């Protein structure tokens, strides 16, 4: 069965494979460095709930500010170039985060997660656009669903690893234990950041299709040059004009859902991130502290809750 899965994986489009690989590494890392362990670490370090909300708010604010220029860059420049820039920024974020975890310096932690907010705003539009362009139109439901399930499955790996660590080395909210878990989670995400340097716009399905269409037009034009009659010359000129002035795709301006269409996607993503990260700063980020302080749950018990939640999402 494993061999069959490997064959199916290699049968996928190049950029689709890389997207799955990136998701496997980095989503498992994010389940540690962005969720319950981080909240517990900040609370133990400062003895206050306020910095937990500050970190989440900083991520959301920076991500909101960078979303529009990042989306413009994804449209204006090659997506693989944007992802390489995101990869460099991600490695810088990882280095700052590791330094902040080890030193316990809150100002450095704020800087690190501000950089992460910029990273997510730059990486997400380029990755999603290249992922979609690497799948034929009308066949994206399966790969999109697979990616969503994969993200939820690997999202349980971080909490599971944390449970194992706390079970072996002591199930208590100690600063040293939380530092080790956070550093380990950050190291797991580094291979995912390295994957960003290998995406390739030229291997995307949609780009290959457009290139092949242009090539066929050019070849047809060269063949028509053999026809020296006035009609042949006229046909050659028409082919050249078609290749130089391709009409815009109708779907770019059409409304596909009531008054909304593809041109509204950047605004929808903007509003989604704004609501999600501000809402998380007011509620979800404090769930681990609520369970810790009110119910007296240990780190492994809190992590167990965060294993059950994505597992139920996948099953249901």
UniProtKB/TrEMBL annotation:
UniProt-recorded Gene Ontology molecular function terms: transmembrane transporter activity
InterPro entries, A to Z: MFS, MFS_trans_sf
Highest taxon of the lineage: Eukaryota
Keywords for the protein's UniProt record, in alphabetical order: Membrane, Transmembrane, Transmembrane helix
Stretches that traverse the bilayer: 20-45, 51-70, 82-102, 148-169, 175-199, 267-291
Stored PANTHER family: NODULIN-LIKE DOMAIN-CONTAINING PROTEIN (PTHR23525:SF1), TRANSPORTER, PUTATIVE-RELATED (PTHR23525)
Protein name: Major facilitator superfamily (MFS) profile domain-containing protein
